[in-house]
Each structure stands twice: as C-alpha cells, then as structure tokens.
Amino acid sequence: MLSLFASSLTDGASWSVLVLLGLASIFASYIVFSPRQSFSPHSPKLISDQYPIFGALRYFSARWDFYRDAIAQSKTGNFSFYLGKYGVIGFSGRQARKDYFESKILSLHEGTSLSPQVPAPPQTLQGGKQVQETSGFADYFNRRINRMLSRENFGRTVPAMMRDTQTRLEEFGDSGTTNPFDTIHSLVFQLTVRNVGCNDIADDRALLEKTRGIYETMENSYNPSIIVLPWIVKAFTPCFINQAIAGARLYFILKGVVDKRKKTGERQNDTLQYLLDQGDDLGKMIGFIIGALFAGVINSGINSGWLLCYLATNPRWMAEVRKEVENAAAKHTTDNTASLSDQLATLPIEAWESDFPMLDLCLKETIRVQGQGVFQRRNVSGQDITIGGEVVPNGAFALYHVADAHRDESIYTDPETWDPARYLPDRAEGSNKLDYIGWGIGRHPCPGMRFAKLEMNMIVAFFVATYDYTLVDKQGSPIPQPPPLNRNNMAASKPDTPLCLKYERRK
C-alpha cells in the first residue's frame, strides 16, 4: 500500500502535499506531547487576549498596545500569557522594575532565547532541572566581550575610528542629500567591525558592504513569532531559511580571513587576532563576532541617524552641541589653523568620553524616545521565585517593556517629545536610577555602553563640525519635526517614511 501511494506522487504538487501533511503531523505531535508551562496559583492572572495552542499572537503584531491593555486588565499591573507552549509573565511599575533588574536568579541569556535574532529554541527544562546561564557559549561570549572593552584594551581603535569617520564624511562632498539611516548606519557598521571584528573587512569597502548586506538580510528576515512553532517546523519557514543561508555566507567570509592569517602568518591589532592568539575554536570565534556585530549595530546604527535628525530640527541643541565640539577641539588642538574636523581628529579618548556633556544628554534622550521592545529574562533556577510580589515558575519567561518606564508621565513630562533639557538640574527628570533603563540597569547593564557612546558621539561631532544641514523628505522638501513613532515596533527602527539630511560644508 505504501509503495502504491508513493508511486502515485509523480508531480511536485503531490510531494508538496506530502511535505505539508508531514509538517502538520509533526505540529500535532508537538501540541499533544509537549506540555505547556504551568503557572503557580500565585502567578499573575492569565490574560484573555490569546488563542488556543498559539497563545498571545498580538504580542508580535502590536506589542506595546498588547502590553498596555494587559496592564489595564490586571489589578497588580502584572499579567501572565502564553507564546506557544512557553509561559510568560509581564511586569510593570517601579517595584517590579527594581526586583526584575536586580534579580540574581533571572537568566539574561536564556531570556533572549524567547525571540532570538537568529532563531534557536529555548532550552527545555527536563524534570525542573536548572539551566546554567554561565555555561557554554554564553560564558565564552561574556568573557571575551568584557576583555575587548576592558580599560587596557579600550581605546586601541580610536585613531582608526576617527580616520574612518573623517573619510566617510569627506566622501559626501561639499553639498548634497543623504539618508542617515543608510549612510550613517553603514559607518556604524564599519566602526563596529573595526572594534569587535577584524581590520581585513573594515579596511576593504567592497567586502565591508557585502558583509553589511548579509547582516541586514539576517536582521530583516527575523520573525520572532516562529517561537510558537516546534523546531522542526521552524526549519522550513522562509525567515529561518534566509537567515541560515545568510549566516553561512557570513561564516565563510570570516573563515576566509582566519584561514588567510593562519596560512600567511599575518598579524593584525584587532579582536580577531586576540581570539586567534587565545587559541579559540573557529566556531566560537565566528559566533562571537556575529553576536557582537548584532549587539553593536542593531541600536547604535538607528539611534545615530535619529540623533542627527533631532538636532536638525532643534536649533537650541544644535548650537549647544556645536559649541561643545568647538570648545573640545580648541582645548586639545596643537594647530589652530587646521579645520575643525582635523582638530577633532587629534582628541584623545579621555576627551571623547568627558568633553561632550550636552551631546550625552541628546543621545540619552534619543535612546529614551526611540527605545522600543522588551527586556527578557527566564527563571531557570530549578525553583519558583518571586518578582514584584508575583511568582515566576521555574522555566517561565519574565518581561519588562522599556516604555513602561520611558513613557511614564509621572516621571517624564510630555514623554513623546524629544527634550534633552528634561535632564538638566532644574528639572532632573528620570534622576532615580530605576527611571531610565536605556542602557539597562541592575545586574545586567549594557556591556557595550562605553563603546556605543564613543562611536555615536564621534559620528555626530564630526558631522556637525563638517556640515550645516536640515531635515528633508526624499523629494528635498523641508520637514519641521521628525514624524511620530510607531510604538508597536519591536526595537529601535528606521522611520516608516524616509528621512534625509540636506547638507552643505561649513565655511
């Protein structure tokens, strides 16, 4: 009977049906034999806005609206829901925020597996066992990134970063129009490759842009909703296939660089050389570089563009930043006849980190306004724990939406408005350490914060030193203010309608 059935499948359509039936059978088995996370009676109440089997799909399509509605329906402001078979608890409010970010138990590494940029399943807890956060690749990644950003190593690439930035801006010419979410994003990618990757790619523009294109394929193919599907079904989804192909292409680019260095004995003063000198496994080295690229580019590339757009439409803060740039250059230059850009190129790292307090406020406010998405943690301790007065069962995920703090009108006046003056001493909004979470707080602050601030300050300082500019649309018509944001975006995002900067070299 089986042979007769198989022999009848003579065309592609029949085989497609067979494959679909097979996947449906696997999915059905997944539903039947893979039980859902169970919640404690002392966990927050389950929300009603979810579907059988799949859970709260609105979490993927309208995340902030979903989060706000769930808070409104809860007496405590906290709530439970499902994403596929995974149990999730959402938190809100200052006390829950404190407990959440200061928890020594909630796992950051396992938390991000809920919607990873490169799809991979969360680990399954067998019999309530504990999953060690510091095991395997996570421990390796943390040790290496901390070494790259250590005091003795940080600043190694500052001269090259300044050279890269100057070179890119000189390519703009004396006047023109540019989309900062493309050109500045490309510069951020180059600076990040320079710091956490290798000079071979950072110095080769064609290879750099090829690598960036692969990176953007991986980023844009990302679809977190596949978390509700069993692993073997995910493997047949377009987003997974596209990311797998792009990941393989990126792997072979990096492998080619490694093989060349091993063959020729060539040495470079970069991150890849350090990893090679440590005798690290090739797979781990490439995994580290790919992971660090995603961590370094995904927000900084977007926030740099938005910061330039906000300055273009705020004369007061443009003047403050430009004055700061001129003062820093005058303080450190040895040649007063050099251009402002060339004077900036002599600044030591200490100046980049301490001489731009007004620019720091502008960046801080850009991150607050543009910040989207959720922080993700998971309880893999082997036992139930309490956060914000609510029980988080072993194996459950815990979320905190950044907008719960950054859109809170009791903390920030008119929170949708970009207004760096809110942080000045006479207002001191968000001065409580729990009220600003743009760089993370508690036990897991962003390890790359120092580098991210440095590269974004450097890009903006060189840009305003070199050009006068205004904000325009793609037709060149002036825009008085950047458009309002889509608060349901899952992360800092490019504008829905293209924004451009019309620039002219300063005299």
Question: Strand order of the main beta sheet, please?
Answer: 1-2-7-4
CATH superfamily: Cytochrome P450
Give the beta-strand count: 9
The appropriate CATH architecture is Orthogonal Bundle
- Which radius of gyration do the C-alpha atoms yield? 25 Å
Instruction: Work out the helix count.
Output: 22
> What is the number of independent domains?
1
**Strand coverage percent:** 5-15%
Point out poorly predicted stretches. 1-10, 29-33
GO molecular function: heme binding; iron ion binding; monooxygenase activity; oxidoreductase activity, acting on paired donors, with incorporation or reduction of molecular oxygen
Pfam family, one: p450
Keywords: Heme, Iron, Membrane, Metal-binding, Transmembrane, Transmembrane helix
Family: Belongs to the cytochrome P450 family.
How would you characterize the overall build of this protein?
- By secondary structure, this protein is of the alpha+beta class.
- The chain has a single domain, classed as Cytochrome p450.
- 50% of the residues lie in helices and 8% in strands.
- The chain contains 22 helices and nine strands.
- The chain has helices at 2-7, 12-33, 58-61, 63-73, 94-102, 108-112, 136-148, 158-170, 180-196, 199-202, 205-220, 231-234, 238-264, 271-277, 282-297, 300-312, 315-332, 340-344, 349-354, 357-370, 403-406, 449-466; strands at residues 79-83, 86-91, 175-178, 374-378, 385-387, 390-392, 397-401, 467-472, 500-505.
- Strands 1-2-7-4 form a four-stranded mixed β-sheet. Strands 3-9-8 form a three-stranded antiparallel β-sheet. It has a two-stranded antiparallel sheet with strand order 5-6.
- Strand 5 and strand 6 form a beta hairpin.
- Helix 9 crosses helix 16 (300-312), helix 17 (315-332) crosses helix 20 and helix 17 crosses helix 22 (449-466).
- The chain is globular.
- Residues 1-10 and 29-33 have low confidence and may be disordered.
